[in-house]
Amino acid sequence: xxxxxxxxxxxxxxxxxxxxxxxxxxxxxxxxxxxxxxxxxxxxxxxxxxxxxxxxxxxxxxxxxxxxxxxxxxxxxxxxxxxxxxxxxxxxxxxxxxxxxxxxxxxxxxxxxxxxxxxxxxxxxxxxxxxxxxxxxxxxxxxxxxxxxxxxxxxxxxxxxxxxxxxxxxxxxxxxxxxxxxxxxxxxxxxx
Length: 192
Fold this sequence. Notes:
Blueprint: H1 2-18, E1 20-24, E2 30-37, E3 41-47, E4 50-56, E5 65-71, E6 75-76, H2 80-87, E7 99-111, E8 114-123, E9 126-141, E10 147-158, E11 177-191
Antiparallel strand pairs: 1-4, 1-11, 2-3, 2-11, 3-6, 4-5, 5-7, 7-8, 8-9, 9-10, 10-11
């Protein structure tokens, strides 16, 4: 019994040592979104405040476990009036729902350094499983000896699935604001 306990303890230590923890470096990352406006153009914006952590045991991030939180109050479309409207009860309702979170549930390889990333997105009081495309850009050391890695995550969500239903009908009958929102996250990770 004592030998079994020692083997289990050694195995646990080996697993912990093989695990790599990463934090998102916000000064070298961006979270962007785009949505159709009046059918003829797009409005783009960013979220400037966010944090995230990733745990991996494989060098290619094929088993990444991702936890990501966005401060929805940091929405910025380069138009203060529109940003205020986005924070209001018509859209994000940031006083009631100040955070958006993503927690991964699986990663599936689709090609060389390319993956389908599944997880639960919680936004505006609603949690839905979504699938995003993830590209692993590689790992390197910076000039100060820190290990860095790069990921690009893209996808499309339907904002009405999360209760973001505000809209107006244009003269021609089209919707003023598109329902599909394109998300692009380019993140640089720092090994901790």
